[in-house]
Amino acid sequence: MAFTLPDLPYAIDALAPYMSQETLEFHHGKHHQTYITNLNNMMKGNEFENAALEDIVRKTYNVADKAGIFNNSSQHWNHILFWECMKKNGGGAMPGELEKRIKDSFGSVDDFKAQFAAKGAGQFGSGWVWLVSTANGKLEVTSTPNGVNPLCFAGQKALLGCDVWEHSYYIDYRNRRPDYLKAFLDNMVNWEFVARQL
Ligand SMILES: [Fe+2]
Known about the structure:
Layout: H1 21-42, H2 53-60, H3 67-84, H4 96-106, H5 109-122, E1 127-133, E2 139-145, E3 157-163, H6 170-173, H7 177-188, H8 191-197
Helix pairs in contact: 1-3, 2-3, 5-7
Fe (ii) ion binds at residues 27, 31, 79, 163, 165, 167-168.
């Protein structure tokens, strides 16, 4: 079954000025759509034709001759999560249960944000920065290259993901990835959505 581009869960200009309409037109309408088009072409007529997206990602991770289908399926999954992780007038206070879990794991919300921003800024080249829950119940900040995501690592569940590919911030922030990460955390994150992933 072919995958389709999900609608953004907000208006195309809802995240401005932190993420402009122009960025979303390219990022959602062009980049995300291209991953879906490529994925649909690559799964035609083979074992993945009717597979669930998560299964395609897990079964193709680190398989040498499946790199193309891995990259496009993982990026489709990553962007679905990414759009949901943001909202108009995001940032601000987080639900109590999430705040407690973050304080238990990182000491304070500010320490968590500092770690998330540093991991995102430090990811060399294209990739993602994540807040994940792990098998022992702790929350951790991780980063991954290119399309790799927490589905690839046993016991990890993604709670929050931020795209640090240049296509995510170059129109609005040019090379200032740290400014984009700060705006993401302080002005765009949908903490209610993150809390629901717990
Ligand atoms: Fe992206």
